[in-house]
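Q: I'm writing up a methods section and want to include an example of the input and output format. Could you take the sequence below and give the corresponding predicted structure tokens, formatted cleanly so I can copy it straight into the document?
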Amino acid sequence: MPNNLLTSTTPRPFLRPASAGAELVFAALAERFGDRLSRSQAVRDQHGKDVSYHPAAAPDAVLFAESTEDVSFTVGLCHAHRVPVIAFGTGTSCEGHVAALEGGVCIDLSRMDRILRVGQDDLDCTVQPGVTRKQLNAHLHDSGLFFPIDPGADASIGGMCATRASGTNAVRYGTMRENVLALEVVLADGRVVRTGTRARKSSAGYDLTRLMVGSEGTLGILTEITLKLHPVPETISAAVASFEALKDPVDAVIQIIQLGVPIARVELLDEVQIAAVNSYSKLDLAERPTLFFEFHGSPESVDAQVETVRAVCADHRSGDFEWASTPEARSRMWQARHDIWWATLALRPGSQGFPTDSCVPLSRLTEAVLAAREDVAELNLIAPMCGHVGDGNFHLCVLIDPDDQDEMDRAQELNARLIHRAIAFGGTCTGEHGIGYGKIDFLVEEHGDAVGAMAALKRALDPRGILNPGKILDLARWPDPFM
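A: Here is the clean output for your methods example:
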């Protein structure tokens, strides 16, 4: 197992001379915020763990922020006393992002949940970080606009920015990187800055917006986010196609993308994942490798997309399309896809999920998927596969008993093989889950000495190392070359 994993009972002394200062911070926060600062064990435990198997590490205190001023005051105070700060959204991340590895203050942003502005003419909006994607789209329901980034969980917009989330619509609409226009950010010393503008392009200075998107709370805490919105398509159609063998749907998707068909969504579920979905979501899909499709556009363009995709799938041994023609049927189909995490856990009651992902160039996708399937069988694991295969990204969720060391070792071996292969193919160790502390070693394998440049940026923007320490990179492994 990676040597940076903690157990729930691992002592967490501050790694800086700050324990006395920490108590001063907690006292000052309690005086200012009253019962919005909690040191209850239950609240702290809740804020030290995400949805994955990664061991939890609770913060020493949790502040429920309600404004940018709350965040700025708290971060500035923690900076002065060298106390760690961890931002928290909904806790749906997968790589230990919210674990308080060195204790400190967790800032829960869920109460900062106001939609501040919707610009219908400009197709944009500004929201606070605690707004969730479902909340935003419900608010936009009658506007003719929607926000397309859809990672599955009802994640907060702030958390989606922090991890550079993507999801089922990324093949057409891009990821958070392409859909964030501007940010308000609290820096490590409590200063508030704005990055970007509402203009759709700019050549003015360093692109600090893109630097913050994907920084996992290690460079600043996001307090306002300006997003691109998209018109609701005139026509939406969805379908399910099953195939004889796992190779077939992957090859079909590669051909569809290479033909330039502008599909909105395409999702791969292997037969194990389909069995889980059928049982959990009460569907009756054929238990074979399957693609879920969605098409957006004018009636004529959707018809053209459908006919091309149907023909390609038939060439790759698909059965007939099963149509989800009504909004209710489409919603049921995609809700089943979004419930995959819970459906997978239900395959083995009492287990925990070990989710992992990788992303490869499209031309290597079939090879990567089939090799992963062989690894699962060789290592004798239960690991359903799904993926946003239109952009080369796929996931395994290994069902594990964390108390079974042999099983944990095999799961870690599967994860390592998946990632080593992706990097060798010219891909990445994570298409959308992020690094957290679970994939720090793999980031080094992928980027080499470029991680040293990341460490320099971290030191420049967070010289006291208080922002989500222990995530993305281990500063101790990258000495400051200027010291």
